[in-house]
C-alpha cells in the first residue's frame, strides 16, 4: 500500500536539528522524498508498523508533528502530480 509520511520538526535547538536528520534518514530507508518533509512509501502492514514505531521514538510529541496517510493499493487513481521533480513508480524496480 502507498503511505504518505509527512513531518514538521522544530529545529530551534541542536536536538531538533538532530531529530530532523534522523526522521529524514529513516524515511529515506522506506520510500522516496517527494517534497522536503514528505515521503511516498510503498509498504506492507509489517513495514508500516515498523516505520511508525521508529519515527514515533524519534520525534518530540510536544514540539514536532508526524502524519501517516494510507492511500492503499489503488493509489494511482488518487495521486496527481504537476510541475518539477516528477517521481518514479515506487512499485517498480529501481535500476541505478
Textual characterization of the structure:
With 96 residues, the chain is an alpha+beta fold. It is built from 2 helices and 4 strands; from the N terminus they run βαββαβ. The chain has helices at 14-28, 45-58, and strands at 2-8, 32-35, 38-42, 65-72. A 4-stranded antiparallel sheet has the order 2-3-1-4, with helices on one face. α1 (14-28) packs antiparallel against α2 (45-58). It starts with a strand and ends in a 24-residue tail after the last strand. 16% of the residues are buried. The model has no long low-confidence stretch (mean pLDDT 86).
Summarize the structure.
The protein has 96 residues and is α+β, with helices and mostly antiparallel strands. Helix content is 30%, strand content 25%. The protein has a four-stranded antiparallel sheet, covered by helices on one side.
Amino acid at each position: 500500500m502507498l503511505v504518505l509520511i509527512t513531518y514538521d520538526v522544530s529545529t530551534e535547538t541542536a536536538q531538533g536539528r538532530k531529530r530532523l536528520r534522523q526522521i529524514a534518514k529513516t524515511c529515506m530507508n522506506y520510500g522516496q522524498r517527494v517534497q522536503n518533509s514528505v515521503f511516498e512509501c510503498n509498504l506492507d502492514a509489517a513495514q508500516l508498523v515498523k516505520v511508525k514505531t521508529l519515527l514515533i521514538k524519534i520525534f518530540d510529541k510536544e514540539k514536532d508533528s508526524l502524519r501517516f496517510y494510507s492511500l492503499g493499493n489503488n493509489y494511482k487513481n488518487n495521486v496527481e502530480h504537476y510541475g518539477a521533480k516528477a517521481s518514479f513508480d515506487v512499485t517498480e524496480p529501481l535500476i541505478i
